[in-house]
User: Fold this.
Amino acid sequence: MNMINLRLDELPNDTAENLQKNLTYTYQEVWERRSSIRTRPSKLIDFTKMGYFFPESKQPLLLHPEIINKGEDIKYEILLQSFKKYLIDIITLEIKMIDSACRMIIEDDLPVYYDDQVKLNANTVMIDEYYHVYIARSMLHQINQHFLGLKSFSYPISDASHAVYKLQSSLDKEYCKMFHIIAVCIFETTLVRELIDFFNAEDIHPCIKHYVNDHMNDEAKHYGFFYDLLCYTWNNLSEDFKNVIGQCLAEFIKLYLHIDSDKLFYQKLCESYVEDKDKSIQIVNDLYKGFVISPDIPIVKNVMNVLKKSNITSHNATKSGFAKIGWNI
Ligand SMILES: [Fe+2]
Ligand SMILES: [Fe+2]
Assistant:
């Protein structure tokens, strides 16, 4: 945990001079010294060691009596399946969303100018994300080789990807790339410290703990880069782009932080144990009864803080978008 805090402490503060300096220099230099791909050995899971593959407190199915009664082996398997879903989400999000935003910054002729150093920084992020995907695939392969006969599932599209596609479908084409870059800046600054704490719990398998900490070592650096990139991008957008993109951010945040994808996966997972579709839908609905995305939820607060600090919420278009969904920002 200290390692993560250390990296977060290194994040640049956001004065205008620092913003420019960090965006044009620091990231590449820090990446050369400290990125996981430059400094860490390969990740092999030692299956002789004890421990769960996913934090129990992040798997709501384990709160339901019907599932609790199924015993320890099923609990272990549910957590293993939850970890597989976590890896699949990394593979899809980091390749499809983050890589494509970095590629746009590097290659495309955009309405916001990004200099060569920013492009190099974006290149380091692309390398990191491909490395993270490689590690995630390697972990999946090791798990599938070790636990022969483990049930496989079709994984629903993540809420993050769904939110980008849905909003882009409502925008004129000329705004889509800048919206995509801003959306990715928001994803990469939603660093969930709570999740890191959960994975550092006593009963988590030591290799999984180690893996998540290494991944977050890079993601803490990405947080700094994308926060500065978000501030720079927003400041340099024309009023026309701010009006269009600002207006749709509220809807985007709400969809992005939704849990439809998780719920759908939990239903399928649950069904494989209770062998009754209606019953599994009922179990998941019971667990989420009364849950709505609102500004009081910690992860929503994290995202809103980033939008506030980067001045995005002070724009009238953003304000009116949030007013439309009934959020007072
Ligand atoms: Fe990553
Ligand atoms: Fe990242």
The longest helix spans residues 72-107. DSSP finds 15 helices and no strands in the chain.
